[in-house]
Amino acid sequence: MKRNRGLTDGGRGMNSAFDDPDIVDLLGVLDPGFDDTSYWRRFHLRVVSQAGVELRRRSLQHATITDVVESWTRALVPIVALAAAIAGFMLIQTRTIEFAGPVGVEEVLISELDEPALPDLVRDGAENVTFAADVTF
Amino acid sequence: MNVKAEMRDGGLVRKARCGDGRAFGALVDRYMRAAYSVAISITRSHEDAEDAAQESFLVALEHLEECRNPDKFGGWLMTIVRNRSRNLVRREALRQTDQVPVSAQSKDRGPDRDAEASELRGQLMRALEILPQIQREIVLLHDLEGWKHREIAERLEIPPGTVRSHLHFARKALRTTLDEDKWLHIVKERA
Question: What is the distance between the alpha carbons of residues B66 and A93, in angstroms, rounded to a whole number?
Fold first, then answer.
């Protein structure tokens, strides 16, 4: 028979002189957990689940301004971090300039190109590129 | 080991007041058996004792601010259990329904279909009925729930000597009423 523990030490040593094992054994039958081992677990779950509404009400009632700010911060920090990461990634992506093909000298003269574009003008196989210095007047 | 299980009542009550579910759960775990024992000593029916004990925890939670000494939560809770149980008994009496014998109730619930255990429950309840309420409560808290004299004395707010004396007379009466030898070997076999 499963015996319940006392509040403080889980044993009954201090009362041993006053114990009456026969009566203890007989009364044990009145424990609903005597032949239903999960009885007390179910009892506990039932009470705690029924108390849920009241416990939530109490936790809301006792929430301080700091608690509210903290709870906002908890939600806000990951979102801000994610947004910053996405923004940084997009910034890096847009800095990579791609050119469709070789650029003619006239175009270079009449339009402004970004600095990174210039090496493309002199790369191998750029047949159509004519530099102003090569032109004889 | 769960820290909350070792915390004193006062600490758990203060946390439960702020809506800490685990603290409240620890209080339920600590006192559910005692609450049931006190309830059954008054209602003498499993179903009513179960209802009274469960309701008492919910009432206690709603009125936790009224527990002036959180370290004595156990005694305060037992007062609620006693009141709820008496109300239930009164309501039952008003309804004037026939009291279902304990043995029959036991057969209907859960896996408990053992005829001998049911019969013993019936005998025990009849034997307990003869005792005064205070003796019933003390013998159940001590011999069923394992509370110490000191704990019972603190929670019922009576001297430890009175607890011992009530316990002595309660056991003597139970021994006289019960056919002890017949039942003891059955219980020991099951154990």
Answer: 64
